[in-house]
Amino acid sequence: MLKILKYSFYDLMRSRWSYVYFIFYLLLGVVLLFLNNNLSKAVITLMNVIIVLVPLIGTIFGVMYYYNSKEFTELLLAQPLKRSSIFLGQYLGVALSLSMSLILGLGIPFVFYGLFKSNDIWDFSLLLITGTFLTFIFTALAFNIALSNENKIKGFGYAILLWLFLAVIYDGLFLMSLILFEDYPLDKLSLFGTMLNPIDLSRTLILLKLDISALLGYTGAVFKKFFGTNFGLIVSIIMLSVWVVLPVLRIVYKSNRKDF
Amino acid sequence: MVTVENLHKKFNKNVVLSGIDLNINEGGIFAVLGPNGSGKTTLIKTILGMVIPNKGAITVLGKNIKHNSEYRSKIDYLPQIANFPSNLKVKELIKMIKDLRGNTNEDVRLIKLFNLEPFLNKKLGNLSGGTKQKVNIVLTFMFDSPLIILDEPTTGLDPISLIRLKELIQTEKAKGKTLIITSHIMSFVEEVSDEIVFILEGEIYFKGTINELKTKTNQPDFEHAIASILIDNHA
Questions:
Q1: pLDDT tens digits, residue range B191-200?
Q2: For residues B145 and B106, what is the distance between their CA atoms, to the nearest angstrom?
Q3: Which tens digits make up the pLDDT trace of B82-121?
């Protein structure tokens, strides 16, 4: 698996897109720091971008890489290699190179700005950790979609739909259900609903860490009581890990049964 | 060497293989023939484990291939359509395959044999079909495995390369290896193969030597014998 990982990683590192992605984050970091002139404000703005953009890039890159490396995959399948190592190697190659672009691209400007001397280092690290989690989650989901769809256009369509659903539509439905059932106590339900969507989960996790939960009203207080504690943090990290592990298991399952 | 028992495979509702039983003995050249869409490539891909059968068992060198990947180190496979990662250079591809399968020095001799030196630093996406096929042949023959599977090996080759390929096949046969070949070029099959198996609509229609086929169909030459099978079954 490590050899496949190495080749996929180098393959991506040589492609223009990882640099574009890296430079985009580098510029984003520099511009935000320059405009806000304040670390913690820059972290908040950054969060709004990361929460939406990272899943999108992960999804598109994942689907694109799978379809583009079809020839490479077929070549590998005739070699004495396990299917699971071929596909997990490719998956990790994509997810790691994307995470590296994210961490280095954002990390460099923040470090130069004086991150290590600031109290915001924990908030910033949490931002990068959730960003990495989101990359791994959405790349794995994208690989799942690509494995199940031979047709590229269909695969891309489903992948974009999935991103749109989790990033936008889910929130809408969630909000509507809250309004619809406003007569009932909803704090447990909304807590649960947040847990089920990795994007919402990441957003809530960061927002509450940033101590601006007063803006969120009563539900905010319930959330704060849950996410603000170490218990909540651990449960959230476990949920995000589950979101990585389940799609990865399906990659293994699906790839072992597929015909090439 | 290779045994196939009661092999069934369908893609969605399209039945491709229905109950193939086949035994390929060690040593010699074995040709798999059949019209387009008869299931030749599917049969080969199931032996390689790239296509998962719905029913049936396959053993290669005495080992059941189900949930096994190690047996492929005993097989050299030449795929039908040479699809390579287009942004890799020829040299890098050869190095990569060596890294994955183990080292060999045969590639140097084969590259010379097929005059591929000028292409070593070119990207695979920029090569012509015939040159890609030559790279494909180098990748297949550079390892010393007891079983060699060639799917349409003659595609796109110029006459000189075709002669080189035939020589290469004969040298490997002389070493006591088993070769499985599919081809639509009947003269090529007649020239190289010791035994043939004819697949028609997912079943084995004939297995034996070319002479046996000629007697069975009452035809004087191989090409007409094959044509008569096709005409009898489609008319």
A1: 888 899 988 8
A2: 12
A3: 678 777 889 988 998 898 888 888 889 999 999 999 999 9
Interface residues of chain A, partner chain B, Cβ below 8 Å? 3, 7, 11, 14-15, 69-72, 74-83, 257-260
* Closest Cβ opposite residue A77 in set B50, B84, B85: B50
Record the tokens describing residue A188, joined without a space: 């447990």
Nearest by CB: B52 against A7, A80, A257:
A257
A15 → chain B, closest CA residue:
B87
Strands B147-151 and B178-182: parallel
**Closest C-alpha among A64, A86, A87 to residue A15:** A64
B89: which DSSP letter? Answer: B
Q: Please compute the mean of the pLDDT values over residues B155-173 and round it to a whole number.
A: 90
Phi-psi region of B58 (alpha: psi -120 to 50; beta: other; left: phi over 0): beta
Q: Which backbone phi and psi does B193 adopt, to 5 degrees?
A: -85, 150
Residues of A in contact with B77 (CB under 8 A): 78
What range defines the domain where residue A53 resides?
A: 2-257
Q: CA B28, CA B180: separation in Å to the nearest integer?
A: 9
Written as six digits, the tokens of B229 are: 């099978």
pLDDT tens-digit series, residues A160-192: 999 999 988 988 888 888 888 878 877 777 788
Neighbour tally for B109: CB within 10 Å: 12
Number of domains in chain A: 1
Query: 10 Å Cβ neighbour count for A153?
Result: 8
Comparing CA positions, the residue from A151, A129, A124 lying closest to residue A210 is A124
- Domains identified in chain B and CATH numbers: 2-234 (3.40.50.300)
Touching check for B14 and chain A: CB below 8 Å? no
Strand partners for B5: B57
Of B51, B83, B86, the CB nearest to A259: B51
Pinpoint the alpha helices (H) of chain A: 2-14, 16-36, 39-68, 70-77, 83-113, 121-148, 152-164, 170-180, 187-195, 198-209, 217-227, 230-257
- C-alpha A150/C-alpha A160 separation (Å) is 16
Q: What DSSP state is assigned to residue B119?
A: G
Does residue B97 belong to the interface with chain A, where contact is any CB pair within 8 Å? yes
Structural tokens at position A117: 């001397």
Cβ contact, residue pair B79, A14, below 8 Å? no
Give the global pTM.
0.88
Q: Is the ipTM of this complex over 0.90?
A: no
Of B50, B70, B99, the CB nearest to A78: B50
Q: Do A78 and B52 touch (CB under 8 A)?
A: no
CA distances from residue A82 to A4, A18, A76, B80 in whole angstroms, order as listed: 11, 28, 9, 22
